[in-house]
Amino acid sequence: MVIRWRRDLVAWLFVCATALVVTGCHKDSVPGTSSSPSPSPSGSVNPSSSPIGGITTSTTLTLVGGGGSQTLSSSGLSGTLTYPSYTGATGATAEYVLTTNEPDLPALPPTGTPIVYGEFVVGSAITFAGDFGFSALTIPTSVFTLSSTNVVQETIYDGISGAQIGATVTGVLNGQSVTFGSPGTASFPATAFDTYYLVITYQ
Description:
- This protein is mainly beta.
- The protein has one helix at residues 2-23, and strands at residues 56-62, 68-74, 77-83, 86-88, 93-99, 113-122, 126-128, 133-138, 152-158, 164-170, 172-174, 177-179, 188-190, 195-202.
- The protein has one domain (56-202).
């Protein structure tokens, strides 16, 4: 019995010595133990380079035949949507959404990083005499801090066809506020319940 015990002890010591040489005494090589990999360092968000947010506000409005505007505001984010006169259903309604949450866009903006989005949905088929879009926008610093070197642009898309409507417009900065000119569309037939996306990007 003693001889057998010694033989087993010698065998056990030989196995341990071999394991030490192969693994360098790493604890993970010992049967019955395990370790989890060290977590990767968590990334940090820098508002000056990566906009953050989560603001959404919306309204349903009755369009004025001669044209008009609607301003939405929430948590320091403010956007004024302006639309021209239209022909078609009298008293047509529309839904206007202002958000920092990326929607399912039909196309990628031509340049820049998206930061704010607008959605415009008309409830009837109508024809606008010109183009619609943001005329003014205020972006809170909690979403993004603008600098004088930033180029902020607006691009509008048809949600069904994915086509761009008019030209991309570069805004005029004044602190955290931006004003936009017209995308240059002479007239535009809006499809009922199509979503038109107004995408604001920065460079």
